[in-house]
Amino acid sequence: MKIVAADVIVSSPDRNFVTLKITTEDGITGLGDGTLNGRELSVASYLRDHVVPLLIGRDAHRIEDAWQFLYRSAYWRRGPVTMAAIAAVDVALWDIKAKAAGMPLYQLLGGASRTGIMAYGHASGRDLPELFDSIRAHLDQGYRSIRVQTSVPGINAVYGVAAQPSTDGKRYDYEPAQRTPLPAEEDWDTRAYLRHLPGVFEAVRNEFGPELPLLHDGHHRMTPIQAAKLGKALEPYDLFWLEDCTPAENQEALRLVRQHTTTPLAIGEVFNTVWDYQTLIREQLIDYVRSAVTHTGGITAMRKLLDFAAQYQIKSGIHGPTDISPVGMAAALHLDLAIHNFGIQEYMRHGSLTNEVFRQSFSFTDGYLHPGEQPGIGVELDEEAAARFPYQPAYLPFNRLQDGTVHDW
Ligand code: CS2
Ligand code: MG
Questions:
Q1: Catalytic one of 122, 138, 216, 219
Q2: Where in the numbering of this chain does the Mandelate racemase/muconate lactonizing enzyme C-terminal domain appear (predicted)?
Q3: Active site includes 159?
Q4: 230-285, pLDDT tens digit by residue?
Q5: Which residues contact 131 (CB under 8 A, 6 or more apart)?
């Protein structure tokens, strides 16, 4: 089934998205997500200028061969741009194969291993009353697992806190990347954060009880010993996971964290290949793999990564913020439903304009997601609607410490 066309569609309904649409000689189309927040055009160019010419005439059914060809023939391997581009092609080809087979993708991946996909939502607050209100609002929406992010006294802007003002008037946690000519500068103080956070979780547990699964994102901001200290301080509050507690380029850094705390650890949303996890998985230094299908080479690579993790009883915790498009989210849900070592799925809801551009068949009911029964991945792109929202430059913020030092955001 020859590929006869491959189009790169960049649109910006509520935020920028890069979508690849592959069309076969039989008229079957497949969609893939290549969105890399704040660097979208680099993937669009990688696809348009380098990959699309290589796809025309290829047999759309040969997914593994296409993956290996794109990974090895590039010579320059790995990295966020390359792996997002390969992911877009891979998911589009899986979408086509499942449509050709007349079944939802999860059936092609081995069928359902569960009836639904536990999702977690993002609650946050500048103070406890606001945080409690945000948690209740998410419980009312049906979420049964909640990520808790909070402001910290003495720090002006903290990742993941919804209500604080942003430069372009949008809700903060909804879209961290801001449509501004330059990245917004934010401030950070780890010692203030470490003093404040345990008290917040104590208050949340007192208010909502011991059962509710609670998650927290450290967003790469602590040194290993600071992460160990926080993990230990949070143990009484029985977190589902502490995420990205320290930058993990140096995977061995997690050995120090592991020595000091039993708080479960999740890492990997900025990783792009299985190689980024080798030590972390082999030495049981993490409990959840946080990669996104869109940033880790697609379904083909993610399945191999999660199969590797399964040998160590490490589970999935796939990255699902709004900068993963509905196409990337749908692909993740098919994988979530089929794999055995499923842990939890992040689910930040897309905005109304995004839902106009991407028609989705996945559902969220009583805290559980389901990819739906449509053949393929179950998402269609309205190209006319997409054309109404041209690309708009946007940047993620960055951090400086009190002495002006650039710090992880
Ligand atoms: C975050 C992301 O959802 C998360 O866990 O770490 O929102 C992250 O900040 C964005 O994806 C960055 O683009
Ligand atoms: Mg995160």
A1: 219
A2: 129-264
A3: yes
A4: 999 999 999 999 999 999 999 999 999 999 999 999 999 999 999 999 999 999 99
A5: 123, 124, 125, 148, 150, 200, 204
